[in-house]
Amino acid sequence: MIAKVLAPASRRERMTRRPHLDTIAVDTETTSAAGDVTLPIHLSSTYELAGLDTDLSLEDINPGDGEFLYSRLSNPTRHGLEQELAALEGGERAYAFSSGTAAVATAVLSLVEPGDHVVAFDDLYAGTRRMFETLFRDQLGVDVEFVDATDADAVAAAMTPATELVWVETPTNPRIKLCDIDAIAAVAADYDATVGVDNTFASPYFQQPLSLGADLVVHSTTKYLNGHSDAVGGALITDDPEVAERVEFRQQIALGNMLAPFDSYLISRGIKTLGVRMTRHENNAMALAQYLDDHEHVETVHYPGLESHPQHDLAREQMQGFGGVLSFELAGDMADAKQFLEALETVTLAVSLGGVESLAELPAAMTHEPLSPAARDELGISDTLIRLSVGIEDVEDLRADLERGFAALES
């Protein structure tokens, strides 16, 4: 069991003890004697040893000192990226994975055993929820309980002496709901339970869960950290040594699900522009959210930057920005949503998010289609709910494209 201790500091104090993320994102540790200003790509699978040391163990190999043995264990390019990720999230150790799904699966496999109890947000990404239900609950015998984690009291009511892990996403996909990380961490501390937070939607630029009491953070680095829709990856960052030890064993020894050097390079390259991208994503998203909020064809807009969002105050307190993803519900039915989406030209119809280009999708027919209609209704995912990942294009062009979609509904 991993003990949980919260520092005796206020939420705002913990959040402000941060260096400037714009500088961290650019200040790459290259691990190169040549003095590269960008992270070089190391493709070697194995590394020459200076000599044969019969007393050498894996624990003696320290990538931080430039020591490498085999790329499954550590690779200079991946190690450089992991140092960046740890710095961005304010953690001690980071691990780069082949996907965000791999990062989530490894985190949970590292922390729970059959018979353990897990409290999970009922509004998880559909793939993550299926993983918790099918793999961990049905196959591995983990007692997974889904609750409305927007209410910390609901999390508290679900906790038991057997609870080992609390798992949340904030903001969520696609309804953009928020969890009070600070309050949930306090609840988990009473049970010595570990708190994991999927921080993909906010990115470290707008939210740092470790500073709010979480034990580990995961990302789909495919999204905002990479930012260019050209590399699939995941990350796990922690400031807990025991969590780090467990994750390291499962990733490097048991599962081998690490990120490849070229993808590590691409994500490191993307991180350099994280600050300027996130600022533009947020500015554009806020402008479009306000535009949609007043549109006659739109019933509801979900974006934490709007005062109408039920957790707007929490967003202002917990986050340093409101992010680049919003969702909205059209008046009409799925056929209307299909007509709207297929009329768009600047915004691309595609799954995923967080790239420089704007993407739109219909969760009920795409990312959340595997869920039953009843499950989607329970989560508030209607047939006309459209998720928009707002890119960095000119906002007037984006607004004009949405008008093109609305015009198609009137034709």
TrEMBL record:
Top enzyme class: transferase
Protein origin, superkingdom: Archaea
Cofactor field: pyridoxal 5'-phosphate
A GO BP annotation: cysteine biosynthetic process via cystathionine
SUPFAM superfamilies: PLP-dependent transferases
CDD domains reported in the protein's UniProt record: CGS_like (cd00614)
Family recorded in the similarity comment: Belongs to the trans-sulfuration enzymes family.
Keyword presence, Transferase: yes
Gene3D superfamilies assigned: Aspartate Aminotransferase, domain 1 (3.90.1150.10), Type I PLP-dependent aspartate aminotransferase-like (Major domain) (3.40.640.10)
Enzyme Commission no: 2.5.1.48
InterPro entries to which the protein is assigned, alphabetical: Cys/Met-Metab_PyrdxlP-dep_enz (IPR000277), Cys_met_metab_PP (IPR054542), PyrdxlP-dep_Trfase (IPR015424), PyrdxlP-dep_Trfase_major (IPR015421), PyrdxlP-dep_Trfase_small (IPR015422)
Protein name: Cystathionine gamma-synthase
A cellular component annotation (GO) from this entry: cytoplasm
Keyword terms of this UniProt record: Pyridoxal phosphate, Transferase
GO molecular function, one term: pyridoxal phosphate binding
Keyword Transferase: yes
